[in-house]
Structures are given as C-alpha cells and as structure tokens.
Description:
Layout: H1 10-19, H2 24-31, H3 35-44, H4 58-66, H5 72-79, H6 83-92, H7 108-116, H8 121-128, H9 132-141, H10 156-164, H11 170-177, H12 181-190, H13 204-212, H14 217-224, H15 228-236
Amino acid sequence: MxxxxxxxxxxxxxxxxxxxxxxxxxxxxxxxxxVDTVVRRMDDYNIPRRTKRKDISRATLVSLYEDNHASIDxxxxxxxxxxxxxxxxxxxxxxxxxxxxxxxxxxxxxxxKSYESGxxxxxxxxxxxxxxxxxxHILRHMGVSIRGGRRKVLPIEEMNxxxxxxxxSTKDIGVAYQLQANTVALYLRxxxxxxxxxxxxxxxxxxxxxxxxxxxxxxxxQRLECSTSVVRNRLKRH
Length: 238
C-alpha cells in the first residue's frame, strides 16, 4: 500500500495514466489502492480521463507488426489511434517494439519539422514510438540546434521512498519523473541508497500463464512482488 493515498504524486498519475496509457485498474493495483481513490485524486489534480478503450484486435495487430513489418505510424493510421496507443498495446501484448524493420519507418525530416515547430523531444518520441535519446540523435545528426532547458528540480526524497519502501524499480521511477533508469540510480546512490540487485528469480511461466488469464501487468507484479518493468521485460522475451 502506498504510504498514504493522499500523497499520490500528480506527476506519477500523469505519467502512468496519460503518457504510459495504463488503465485505471492497473494504476490502482500498482499503487495499492482502489480505482475510486485513483479517480478522486485525478479529479483533484484535474487530470482528464480517457474515453472508452479503443477495440484493437490483438491477433490482427501482432500479425501486421510481426509478419507484415508494418510500422507503428502505419498501424496508428490504420486503427485511427495515436502512435503512443499502438506502442502501448504492443508492450501490453508482450511484443518487442524495436523490430529491426521499424528503422525504415523513421522519417528524419518529419521529426525535424515537428521539433522546429515547437514540439518537445519527449512528445516526438511518444508519437513516433522511438526513445527520446533516439530522437535527439536524429536531430543532432541533421544539424538541428537542441533547445536548452533548466535542470529539473527533482523530489529526491520522494524517489527514495518509492524505491526503498514502495519497491518501485529505477525504471518505473524514471517513467514517473521522465528520467532514464540509470539517472534515477545515480541520484539514489548520491543520496546514500543501496540499490537492489538487478536480477530477480521470477517464474516466467507463471507470468505468461497469469497474463494469458487476463491478469493485468500491475496485478502480476504485485502478486510476484516485483516491479511492472520486470514483468514487461520477461514478457518481451517470448
């Protein structure tokens, strides 16, 4: 259970629900509270809720992506959803979203134009299914001057608590605060936190069985006492 449901950070809800596309149930299971509590906190923070989940056939999506090598942008256009939605569904279905053929779908000129129009690298990454660092690499390779920004003032104590007492991984904390996992690890070490070992003994067959039964990733993580990133990574292997 989260230290206090009153202390659920707004940024955590925004990143898990809005940017990562988690369901209300997944967010509630992950934090350890009821869906009603999540909804109330979202209302308090004026975080809008999504409309009804788009019905996308799992078999069709996976077949188009893996067999036909369709890009995320192509799939987004086909199903009339955002690239982020397609990326989230592929992650949800345990499909690795870095298919070797996807490199051909990258449009550097489009990325450059989007950035020069004022969009952030994080926004572009979310819309194209790329990592922010890949977007930066493309922009720098094209000679685009990267806009500067002030260093974030990070809630280190909150990050320490999430890692030490709530059991979140550095990757999950990174999702919440839009940082790389190794950056989170660096801040934690600097604040005197001893990091856990990287490898957990997790029954991958149990993960797959639970997922096939329709159990959410957050619920599986809670049941196996690990982070959601561990569950997602195990699913990607198959």
